[in-house]
Design goal:
By secondary structure, this protein is α+β, with helices and mostly antiparallel strands. It folds into 3 domains: 45 residues; 228 residues, no CATH class; 147 residues, no CATH class. It has 10 helices and 17 strands. Strand 12 and strand 13 form a beta hairpin.
């Protein structure tokens, strides 16, 4: 018997089993092929939904910091690519609308019925100009003007509002100092703006689904004039005057970037263009964009790097120290805190209230030293502390004495419990020279 005869007899004898195997292979192939087809279809659908949601936007800049509005124009002019950069201000807000009473309700009945207030929270509020509006798929809907707002259908339905109705836009005013810090504002400060609904966008339009984060759920979006939103939250341009000695530029927290499309060029920016734009952005950033400033101290001859948020982030301080090292410049990191009370345990009736304590790296080299001591002193290590002679006299403390200090700490829920700690007095310094230096504490608006 040949191999071919054996194969034929095997197939004929086990034809039922072989038929089942063939049917199973066909079914599995159909299932896998169908899954691949459906997967490709879903992937293409999701991709198209994302593209429709973004309109002509190819790249976007968005973050928790507020930077100069002029940065968008500077990025557009400085980039090696032909791009259009549009400034935007993106915030979360709440919308309120009080519907009018039904026409068939008489005056007596309407007085007895409590007014109904419809409210929608966690709304994505976009403050934009004509340039940003032109990058979105808006149909024939016009950009919102002053005191106007454009709602997507989801928000309008929840508010039961129509075109021409007046609604209230409520947003939180950004805090300069973090709310979880000692001197931060504990209560949220909000601002409200009455605006008129100028248009309601259909769900099919990309502007109704605009969002920088991937999400298949229909968002709640509202669009207002950029200048109106900036003025509402205090981010508008402030010119220098007697009342405002420090001029401030208008600020935003986002920028929409798209290819400068023409009749000859209609393709979007490539993924690789992000690196080019990032390089252009780095070259245009200033300290003001990072809420930082350099303050010159002419009396002692040094520059102080300060933050409008009171504390320097670790990444910022590390970068500053590296830059100073590369330039061959001496540095002196400083951490300042506010004490509630300083006293000796032996003399509780003698104390000093609301003193400033500074964590420093003492040195004899100018401009950060030297310290002029009264008597002997020990190195500033471990639990040692130096007192200036005024505080030492107030509490009756001397070298080698123990002092107790009380201060507030910030709790997990924003509470301010008082803590206490003991220090060893390692030296008394005269309140003169670098010790009598107001530059240890940064000037922060509102403090």
């Amino acid at each position: 018997m040949t191999v071919l005869q054996l194969l034929i007899r095997n197939l004929s004898y086990y034809w039922r089993t072989n038929l089942a195997v063939i049917a199973g292979v066909i079914a599995a192939t159909a299932v896998i092929g169908g899954a691949l087809v459906v997967g490709d279809s879903v992937r293409d659908s999701l991709k198209q939904m994302s593209l429709d949601r973004l309109g002509k936007i190819d790249h976007a800049i968005n973050g928790p910091r507020f930077f100069r509005q002029e940065l968008a124009e500077e990025l557009e002019n400085a980039s090696e690519l032909a791009v259009k950069a549009a400034p935007v201000l993106i915030m979360r807000g709440t919308l309120e609308f009080e519907p009018s009473q039904e026409d068939d309700v008489n005056e007596a009945e309407s007085e007895s019925v409590a007014p109904v207030m419809n409210r929608v929270g966690q709304v994505n509020v976009y403050g934009l100009t004509d340039s940003a509006w032109g990058l979105l798929e808006t149909g024939d809907v016009a950009v919102p003007g002053e005191t106007e707002i454009v709602l997507n259908r989801s928000v309008a339905d929840q508010l039961h509002a129509n075109v021409g109705d007046e609604v209230s836009l409520i947003v939180e005013i950004p805090a300069t100092i973090p709310r979880d810090s000692l001197l931060g504002e504990r209560n949220e400060t909000i601002a409200a703006l009455p605006v008129t609904v100028s248009a309601i966008t259909a769900d099919e339009l990309g502007v109704s689904r605009l969002g920088l984060n991937p999400n298949q759920q229909l968002p709640t979006n509202a669009y207002v004039n950029l200048g109106e939103l900036q003025a509402l939250v205090g981010l508008q341009e402030v010119e220098r005057s007697k009342l405002n000695p420090i001029a401030k530029p208008a600020r935003i927290n986002g920028t929409f970037i798209a290819a400068a499309r023409t009749e000859a060029v209609s393709d979007p920016l490539s993924l690789g263009s992000a690196d080019t734009l990032t390089s252009s952005l780095k070259s245009q950033l200033t300290l003001e964009d990072l809420s930082l400033r350099l303050v010159q101290n002419e009396e002692h001859g040094y520059l102080s790097l300060e933050s409008e948020q009171m504390f320097l982030e670790e990444s910022v301080s590390d970068a500053a120290l590296r830059t100073a090292e590369q330039m061959g410049v001496d540095t002196s990191p400083v951490l300042v805190y506010l004490l509630n009370e300083i006293r000796k345990p032996e003399t509780p009736d003698q104390f000093s209230m609301y003193s400033v304590i500074a964590g420093i790296e003492p040195t004899d080299a100018t401009p950060f030293g030297p310290f002029e001591f009264v008597g002997e002193h020990e190195p500033l290590t471990g639990n040692n502390v130096y007192l200036n002679h005024v505080v030492a006299e107030d509490i009756g403390a001397g070298v080698n004495d123990t002092i107790n200090v009380k201060y507030h700490v910030v709790g997990d829920r924003g509470e301010l419990p008082e803590d206490e700690r003991q220090f060893h007095v390692a030296g008394i310094v005269k309140l003169a020279g670098v010790v009598d230096e107001t530059g240890y504490t940064a000037k922060v608006s509102g403090v």
